[in-house]
Amino acid sequence: DAGAFLDRVYINTFSNLAVGKARYGLMLREDGIVYDDGTTSRLAEDHYFLTTTTAKAGLVMQHLEFCRQVLFPELDVQLTSVSDQWAQFSIAGPKTRDLLKEIVDPAEDLSNEGFPFMGAREVALRAGIKARLFRISFSGEMAFEISVPARYGEAMARNLMIAGKPFGVTPYGTEALGVMRVEKGHVAGPELSGTTTAADLGLGKMMSTKKDFIGRVMAGREALVAPNRQVVVGIKPVDKARRLRSGAHIIPKGETPGPGNDQGYVTSVCFSPTLDQWIGLGLVERGRERIGEIVHAHDPLRGEDYDVELCNPVFYDPDGGRQRG
User: Fold this and answer.
1) β-pairing verdict for 47-50 and 86-92
2) What's the half-sphere exposure (Cβ side, CA atoms, 13 Å) at 4?
3) CA 17, 22, 24, 26 torsion: positive or negative?
């Protein structure tokens, strides 16, 4: 009953996910507020592999166990945390396939047709061991995530660097990943603040209308579907040389900053080397209806005031061609 169990936990459907495919999922608290997100891959008819946010991994495991033991005890499902059993590496960039071909058995088809976006399956490596390969991308670039048993983690890291040297491979950390996710408008912890709904994050269409799930009824409360809710939107300074700061409050242009006209705030910022300016994401009242509007950013902590433009949260490659190529 693994698929049926996931259908009750996530707002979207996983029982119809094909074996060998992955899907992004969102789970709510009982009050209808977003709890966590991540990708789920179907490795076999009765075998799913879930990922969560780093901060919520332990809490999500507790939540799933509570659901299994207390809410849905009639379902035949077992949960096992395998975080310590696998070493998983994200390989991102236009030369990802070239690098993987040096690691993966030549018989494995890594082409776009043979291994499309959101594919997931076990593959053989040249080293003679099996690995799990997922074509998922948080960076917005062409990317795969390769997972090997933990005892091979150090060897895999070393082999990736050696095999990738001709392609200019370099390690990248959470700081670089944070920049790329803001450029792509991917929500993370600052947007999953414990006050946002799926619709606030621009993910309302994921919510199934054909099944019940935790938080579905409460997500329809009047206050959670009000038209003036703060929703995720892109933000960029009018002056491209200006630094954008997270935490700055959004005020209508020409208005005096104060609680009465505070319309939201900047949640995440970064300097984008691709766009050569500071950009960010924010939660702003009716933000999606106000794309192109110039508003005021007020930062009382740093004593800064400047104009910003509300824009599409996807700053880079809006059609997703790079990650699907």
Assistant:
1) unpaired
2) 9
3) positive
Which residue ranges form the domains of the chain, and what is each CATH number? 86-179 (3.30.1360.120), 227-325 (2.40.30.110)
Is residue 208 scored above 80 in pLDDT?
yes
In the chain, which residue ranges form alpha helices assigned H by DSSP? 2-9, 57-66, 96-103, 153-164, 174-183, 321-324
Phi, psi of 205 (to 5 degrees): -70, -15
Strands laid side by side in the 47-50 sheet? 22-28, 34-44, 47-50
What is the side-by-side order of every strand in the sheet holding 120-124? 86-92, 143-149, 130-134, 120-124
- Give per-residue pLDDT as tens, 246-261: 999 999 998 988 889 9
β-pair partners for 237: 308
Measured distance CA(215)–CA(213) in Å, rounded: 6
92 pairs with which residues across the strands?
A: 143
C-alpha closest to that of 25 among 198, 145, 190, 142: 198
- The count of other CB atoms within 10 Å of the CB of residue 321 is 9
pLDDT, tens digit (0-9, with 9 covering 90-100), for 277-297? 999 999 999 999 999 999 999
3-state secondary structure 89-123: EEEECCCHHHHHHHHECCCCCCCCCCCCCCEEEEE
Least Cα distance to 186 among 151, 143, 149 occurs for 143
